[in-house]
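Job type: complex structure
Entries:
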Amino acid sequence: MALGLAAAGAFAQDDDPGHFEVRSGSVELAANVYFLSARLEYRLSTDARGALESGLPLTIRLEIELLNRRPMWMDTEVASLTQLYQLEYHALTERYIVRNVNSGDQDSFATLFAALNFLGRVDRLPIIDAALLDPERTYDIRIRALLDTEQLPGPLRLLAFWRRDWSLGSEWYRWRLADD
Amino acid sequence: MAIGRRLRSAFYTLLILAGILLWLTALLLFSQVAENSDDFARYSNLILLINSIGVAVLVTLIVMNLVRLIRDYRRHVPGTRLKARMVSLLIVLAITPLVIVYIFSVEFINRGIDEWFSVDVEQGLGNALSLSRAALELQRREHLESLTEIAARLDISDPARTVRDLSVLRRASEAFELTVFSSNNQIIATSSEDPAASVPAYPNDEVIFQLRQGRSYLGPDLGRSGEYRVVAAVLLPTERPTGEFTVLRGIFPVEQRISALANEVQASYNQFRELEYLRTGLKYSFTLVLSLVLLISILAAVYGAFFSARRLAVPIQQLMQATRAVARGDFDTKLPIPTSDEIGFLINSFNEMTQRLATARQEARLSQQQVENERHKLEVILARLSTGVLSLEADLKIRTANQAAGAILGVDLESYVGKPLADAARGRPLLGQLAAVCTEYLDRGVSEWREQITLRGEIGRRVLMCACTELPSEGDDPRGYVIVFEDITMLLQAQRDAAWGEVARRLAHEIKNPLTPIQLSAERLRRRYLPSDLDDLEFLNRATHTIIQQVEAMKEMVNAFSQYARAPEVELSRFDLNELIAEVTELYRHQEHQVAIKLVLDRNLPPVEADIGRMRQVMHNLMRNALEAMENQADARVEIATRLVTERGTNTVEIKVSDNGPGFADSIIDQAFDPYVTSKAKGTGLGLAIVKKLVEEHGGQIRLANGGRGGAEISILLPISQGGGELSNDTHHDHKRERA
């Protein structure tokens, strides 16, 4: 095991550790449905970029949770939504492909930057029907983005388990769900 | 308790088996994970956890065992060294092959994985990819040309016509979709091969950016199902204000065959690149799995070493403890038989051995006790024996001596045990003479001999029948001797007495027979010739008178003999001995020659039980003996003394008659009591013989010696009471002892 750790250590050589961050988020009510818009910053770590360029698909997870705020008590989760995006490099066409796993839509980009930019824009994503919420209560919404290591192939997953470079994820970004 | 232990042991075994099973499963799963199987993805952490727990448990067990071993080692618990040696041996035996296999496996895997990714393969795949790209590029160029042509022919001033034209042109160019967008991303006209297709997607920023720079856009694109398409976009010539433009975008299918091939090349290339990227990860995973397997195997081996060493050492430890116990003499140890293997056999043999030892010891103790008893009995017998037994070491030190030996020789031999015989003999004439005889024989090298020895002591002669024999030797120990001797003085005396009695009886008989005719003849001579007057009448008278007188005297003598030989029954009565003595001596006070008779009588003398007639005869004989010995002596004196002697609880009366006569000659002193032994001119020689016989009939004892101032001294010891058979026996016994 010590040997394995040493090997893992050798892997990480003063590289970019990567950075995921939720920059902003907002919710709007239209036709009695809440829509989420958010801006996120994705910067892949050197390891993750290397894997991507070697043809490994990366999965990015956008987690959205709706919480019921209760004074003096723990918050309860009312609803949760997970969006999965797959980012892949296509060697033949030399393009980065972003695929929304939930909807099946895909788009291709000449650069990784363009692809990540595209990923960082969440526009009008329907979250929940307003009818499902109790107007008397106060709700919070929080989102975060993660690099989903569970979808990685076995050997890499083992590596990812030990290495910080692979545990990419943003903090929760939380705000109050306003009725408007 | 045994059942509980067995249950617990079974439980532990089950637990260990379950642990091993779990661990193996975890390892298997782990290797599955490492082999890129997504099904086990979410278990990887669990598997790692199980393995970690296994490692922790094993490490704990090993540390506990190690601590115990070190503690035992410091305390010098028996068997710990053996256990430590076994543990280290087993560990070395188990770990060495493991480590070798591990090193080779890691090396093999690393090298093997590296070899998969040889440069040639990568190069080939890269070239194939380039070729595919070139083929696609060719198609794309063709489609761009046809799109440019379409753009030149298309008129967008009338939207309705545009749509119609577009449809015609699309079919002619075999395009999949043709769409005209305005600069504000509005669709002006579109035509698609699939009328049911959704609204065409807007060209993305990249397309717009390139078009704005005045270049046409040409790019490959992938359909939803992964098929290749060519996307081309050109600006349409227009008369709109600057900043606004119209875009014609065409999506063309790629030839089916090329698309499939390109897909395959892409897939292969991708797979290869992926694998190459994962190479380090794979190596890492394999190494990790192997390391984990090695670690757990080593830990299991170490624990197994402890476990089996304990299994092996426990019976040996028990055996050692039991052996120590046996060495201490505790034969009751019984060991439990652990297995039916050689150790079990050993323990079984040990148990049998201890049992046999115990039995043997028991038997030895019994036989020792028997021997002890025998010895004790023998000692008692020896002590009660009238025969003297004296055992000597080879260097003539006294080993043992019984009471009789001491009594016969007049020495307390028991206090000389362990001392040289010569020391004990110093100043003791009897023992000295005996020792001299023994030494003489032994000096001559004769160790087996038998001889009748006559010892001369202060009080008369002692005749010993003496036999010496060599003691059986024990190994190389110097041999010893045992000397057995018996005081046969009395026996010889009795034999002599009996012989004399016989002689006396026969002589009396033989002499008596002719006496009567002689007497009768002499009387007839007198009767016949005395009335006649012969010249020699006076002579005849004297002669016959002498004959008759002498015959009478001879008859008396013969009667005396008879009396000696055949004594009448003893008639016991109780009388005062002093009175008797006074009475007897009174008769001698007024006799012809004056003798001074002095009586020293003990006033406290109790009455004596004896035959008064015989006692009187004893006194007469003794008086006569004394007087006759001093017949012509001027100041003859006789002293008679009595006193009470209490010896060993028996009361006896001592009568001592001493005179101031010539005493006994040395030549006859030993045979003074034999008949016809006399130093006097007168006397039958039977006086003292009869005295002795009478005294002995009363169970008494007689001794004679020459007194200190000259003259004879005869002392008689007489038991006060005859008291029936028992007392008589007792007296006889005591008498014998005193004699000895």
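Summary: Strands of chain A lie at 19-30, 33-43, 58-69, 76-90, 95-100, 106-109, 121-129, 138-147, 173-176. Chain A has one domain: 33-176.
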